[in-house]
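Task 17 of the worksheet. Students: predict the tertiary structure of the chain below and write it out as structure tokens. Keep your answer in the requested format; marks are given for formatting as well as content.
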Amino acid sequence: MGYIYAVTVQIQLSHHDEWLAYMKGRHIQDVLNTGCFSKASMTKVLKEDEREGFTYTIHYHFDDFSSFTTYEEIHAPKLQEEHQKLFDGKFLAFRSIHRVITL
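Model answer:
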């Protein structure tokens, strides 16, 4: 059994390219480098009104809650602060935790 920490972000059109480059080139790898997650993937919402921006979800996979707790308490504040400074007022974010169901 595993878990996914999902971060859904809607980024304004005016900052989309810069944000996507930052996420792919730095932020996601910084999160993985904490050692709290085994892998990450990113998806983009299709068929949305893109005049307001684009919506993505980043999925970070982990196996036990102690790893996530370590991330949340030690690493997340700094990483989220960096993201906030770069894109303040240009995005909305929603975070959730999911349990993977074996089929």
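Marker's comment: The CA atoms of residues 11 and 57 lie 11 Å apart. The chain is about 40% helix and 30% strand.
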